[in-house]
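Fold it.
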Amino acid sequence: MDSRRVSGILLHVTSLPSEYGVGDLGPAAYRFADFLTRTNQRLWQMLPVGPIGPGASPYSSPSTFAGNPLLISPQPLIENGLVTDEELAPLAELPNDHVDYARLVPRKRKVLR
């Protein structure tokens, strides 16, 4: 067993900045991972990353195994021509200082379908 100590940071993905209503695994996540590397941090603890349950809680997820589609970044979808800026406009209208799950969830689902 390796008993060396390492350090890291606890930050839920949804806390990352985003133009689309909630932090996701897009460019901001890559920048954060690069920051961790530059500062010799070895761990990034994200906590629950499953679908949200009642009250938008990741701790009340309906699945232990599923991923959270809200964490899918629209950025690669744009880059690969799978969605347009017009289709993302409803997400860009969401606040960027807090997550409005009631408005976010139906809009993001529509983009991902």
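Residues 27-38 form the longest helix (12 residues).
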